[in-house]
TrEMBL record:
<feature type="transmembrane region" description="Helical">
    <location>
        <begin position="6"/>
        <end position="23"/>
    </location>
</feature>
<feature type="transmembrane region" description="Helical">
    <location>
        <begin position="113"/>
        <end position="131"/>
    </location>
</feature>
<keyword id="KW-1133">Transmembrane helix</keyword>
<feature type="transmembrane region" description="Helical">
    <location>
        <begin position="83"/>
        <end position="107"/>
    </location>
</feature>
<dbReference type="InterPro" id="IPR018076">
    <property type="entry name" value="T2SS_GspF_dom"/>
</dbReference>
<keyword id="KW-1003">Cell membrane</keyword>
<keyword id="KW-0472">Membrane</keyword>
<feature type="domain" description="Type II secretion system protein GspF">
    <location>
        <begin position="153"/>
        <end position="283"/>
    </location>
</feature>
<keyword id="KW-0812">Transmembrane</keyword>
<feature type="transmembrane region" description="Helical">
    <location>
        <begin position="266"/>
        <end position="289"/>
    </location>
</feature>
<dbReference type="Pfam" id="PF00482">
    <property type="entry name" value="T2SSF"/>
</dbReference>
<protein>
    <recommendedName>
        <fullName>Type II secretion system protein GspF domain-containing protein</fullName>
    </recommendedName>
</protein>
Length: 291
């Protein structure tokens, strides 16, 4: 049986070598691309070449664009397609490594099929776990934006009410919030500021900001600003205050959900602690009964 696993290993390494030969020099820039959770950029070129030849975006458009939408929310839409392919290449690289590991385990277990079966199952489950982790990162990003947006809007209302323009108010909020520059909301606001200072109109920069965030509440914020910022004065402040109230209600709902999730996570440790206490209290009683 060992010759089967040896042949499979030769096929796996041989196919990877052939793909690497055709991909060499074509995807040099992928090793410099940084994305949270990506660790196998050096193994990506062969898989990127395979994805290109399989035309994944055309054969599986729903799956590809669903992944791309999540990746764009995290990495931005400028190079969203490239990062999506890099993420898919990461999934294939893990699957290939696990198949190799499973074949090696089967070889060392004297041809036992269970080692390869374990590697094959992990080769399917790990990519699914990566997709699930990507989804959780998107949800966490949206939650962070929703929690911070009402406070940002309150500061803008105060500054506009004091006589500042919307651009000046946003710029002032960014200057005061430099310690939050890694926050997803402030990161997108900084990108918006660079756009309007680089030649884009304020309207184009705001629309790009709303598109990158991809959140309904942010779209409502940008719509309210674009419809009313030319008026200025009390009308603009009143419109933002109405929006602020709805955003604070949304923030309360998100905070309540987080509290419920935190309490539900405490159930298992509490049950475990209860069982330990029962064992500690009951064990001496059973020992006395045996005597």
């Amino acid at each position: 049986m060992n010759w089967i696993w040896t042949g499979l290993l030769v096929c796996l390494f041989g196919s990877w070598g052939v793909l690497f030969y055709y991909a060499s020099g074509k995807y040099k820039g992928c090793s410099n691309m940084e994305m949270e959770g990506i660790r196998l950029q050096r193994l990506a070129p062969p898989m990127l070449y395979l994805l290109e030849k399989l035309q994944v975006s055309q054969r599986f458009p729903f799956f590809f664009f669903k992944i791309q939408r999540s990746v764009q929310k995290i990495c931005g839409d400028r190079r969203g397609g490239e990062y999506t392919l890099l993420f898919l290449a990461e999934m294939l690289s893990y699957s290939w490594l696990l198949m190799v590991l499973g074949s090696i385990m089967a070889l060392f277990m004297n041809g036992d099929f269970s080692g390869f079966l374990m590697g094959a199952v992990l080769a399917v489950l790990l990519p699914a776990a990566l997709i699930n982790d990507l989804h959780r990162k998107v949800v966490r990003r949206e939650r962070e934006v929703l929690l911070e947006l009402p406070e940002l809007l309150n500061r803008i209302i105060l500054l506009v009410g004091a006589g500042s323009t919307v651009q000046q108010a946003i710029r002032h909020c960014l200057e005061r919030g430099k310690e939050k520059e890694n926050h997803p909301l402030y990161r997108e606001l900084l990108q918006m500021q660079r756009e309007w200072e680089g030649g884009y109109s304020f309207q184009q920069a705001m629309e790009g900001f709303s598109k990158r965030c991809g959140i309904q509440e942010v779209s409502a914020f940008t719509t309210a600003v674009l419809l009313n910022f030319r008026r200025g004065g009390n009308d603009f402040v009143l419109a933002l205050r109405d929006l602020s109230r709805s955003l604070w209600e949304r923030r309360k709902a998100v905070s309540k959900t987080l509290g419920e999730q935190a309490s539900s996570k405490l159930v298992f440790p509490m049950v475990l602690l209860f069982l330990v206490v029962v064992i500690l209290v009951g064990a001496p009683a059973f020992m006395i009964m045996d005597l």
